[in-house]
């Protein structure tokens, strides 16, 4: 049995990539509410666990914010997150120790 899936993405990674693409393509704009977890389960034909894992990864990156009982919203574009990380690294490297 092959335990390494030979490069296949997990279901949560596929959901994550789909959401990122929608945000990058400006189909889902900053401040816009994402479909509910149950709607995403139907869209992708995956379990709520897979959807939640993707949303948690997006939250961790700062791309979305989630408010319990309200929903998840687009917060930042991926390039804004990258720029913020570069700015922080630049600030750290310019400090003198």
SSE blueprint:
Layout: H1 11-24, H2 37-44, H3 48-61, E1 64-67, E2 71-74, H4 78-94
Antiparallel strand pairs: 1-2
Helix pairs in contact: 1-3, 2-3
Please explain how this structure is put together:
The chain is mainly alpha-helical and 97 residues long. It is 55% helix and 8% strand. It contains four helices and two strands, in the order αααββα. The chain has a two-stranded antiparallel ribbon. A hairpin with a 3-residue loop joins strand 1 (64-67) and strand 2. Helix 1 packs across helix 3 and helix 2 packs across helix 3 (48-61). The longest helix is centred in the last third of the chain and has 17 residues, at 78-94. The protein starts with 10 loop residues before the first helix and ends with a helix. Residues 83-93 have low confidence and may be disordered.
């Amino acid at each position: 049995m092959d335990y390494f899936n030979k490069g296949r993405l997990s279901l949560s990674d596929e959901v994550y990539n789909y959401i990122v693409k929608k945000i990058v393509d400006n189909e889902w704009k900053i401040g816009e509410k994402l479909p509910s977890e149950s709607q995403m389960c139907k869209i992708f034909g995956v379990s709520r666990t897979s959807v939640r894992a993707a949303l948690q990864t997006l939250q961790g990156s700062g791309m979305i914010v989630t408010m319990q009982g309200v929903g998840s919203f687009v917060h930042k574009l991926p390039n804004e997150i990258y720029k913020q990380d570069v700015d922080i690294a630049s600030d750290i490297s310019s400090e003198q120790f």
